[in-house]
Specification:
Helix content is 54%, strand content 18%. The chain is α+β, with helices and mostly antiparallel strands and 130 residues long.
Length: 130
Amino acid sequence: MGAYRQDRVNDAVAREMTELLRRAKDPRISGAFVSVSGARVSGDLSQAKIYYSVLGPDEGVEEGLKSASGYLRSELARTLNLRVTPKLIFVRDHGPERAMDIALLLKEEKEHASSANSDNQSGDGPDEDQ
C-alpha cells in the first residue's frame, strides 16, 4: 500500500476511533477521558495499533477497551470503506502523562528559583560589604 494511502487510512482509523470512544457506553471507558493519539494500520490491513492516553482515573480502561474491541471493530467496519477491517490492538501512550510531570517539575523549579532569588534580594544573604 502506498505511503500516502497508508497515512490516510491511519488518520481515518484514529479519527473514527476517537468518535467511537467518545460515544462508548462502557463505564470503564466513559468514566475516564480516553484520547486517541494515533493509529498504525498494517499494510495488509490485518491489524491496527490504536495509541491512547488517559487523563483522570484509569482503573479498568485497558480491560474496557479489550472488552469493547469487537464492537468497536464492527462499528469501524460500518463507517470506513476498507477491504478488510483490522483487528484492534490498544497500546497505552504515556506521552501526555510524562509531559504533565515534566511541566510540574519545571514549575516547581521555577518557584524554587524565584524564592531563592527573593531571599537574596531581601538582605538575608551574605554581607557583601566585608
